[in-house]
Write a structure and sequence with these properties.
Shape: globular
CATH architecture: 3-Layer(aba) Sandwich
Number of domains: 1
Pfam families: Acetyltransf_1
Distance between the termini: 28 Å
Keywords: Acyltransferase, Transferase
Strand order of the largest sheet: 1-2-3-4-5-7-6
Structural class: alpha+beta
Number of strands: 7
GO molecular function, one term: acyltransferase activity, transferring groups other than amino-acyl groups
Mean pLDDT: 86
CATH superfamily: Gcn5-related N-acetyltransferase (GNAT)
Radius of gyration: 16 Å
Organism: Streptomyces finlayi
Largest sheet: 7 strands, mixed
Order of helices and strands: EHHEEEHEHEE
Low-confidence stretches: 1-11
CATH topology: Aminopeptidase
Protein name: N-acetyltransferase
Length: about 180
Amino acid sequence: MESQGDGYTPVCTESAEVRSATKSDLPQVVALDIAAYGGEAYSPHVLRQLLDVHGEGVLVLEGREGFEDGDGPGALLGYVLVANSSRTQVSWVLDLVVDKRYQGLGFGRRLLSAAVRRAERDGVHAVRVTVEPGNRTAVGLYRSLDFVVEADDPDYFGPGERRLVMTRLATRYPMR
């Protein structure tokens, strides 16, 4: 594997596995969320309840044997939280977090693709996500997986809290 120029050699994406989250993953999920959002992270109580409510919609990416990092096998590199609505047959990506050390290596794509496949397997017709318009990396990731901008809401989370609402139609672009 080629070094990125700063002495860091990226990990092999095959040395990580996407799987359903369990209660024992919560401490690492909480740590990932705090690292990503600081004071705006979900509380441990909320994350625990989200796991209870959305069980199969919470996926983690775990380093496997041969994982080339100091954290070693069993370390969580990221997670995705998806809420499905059987009434509307629409899923919402509520959170997608990849440890900053592993961003840009395809792990976010693996998590999101697995979550979309699972939602579509469960019969949803669309998957939606909100994203800050200035987060070009996230917008690019969603676009690359056939999400399109459905709305641009200047006050989505309140005054001045602009978000794009992006949608991926399962019927038009089935995930393989």
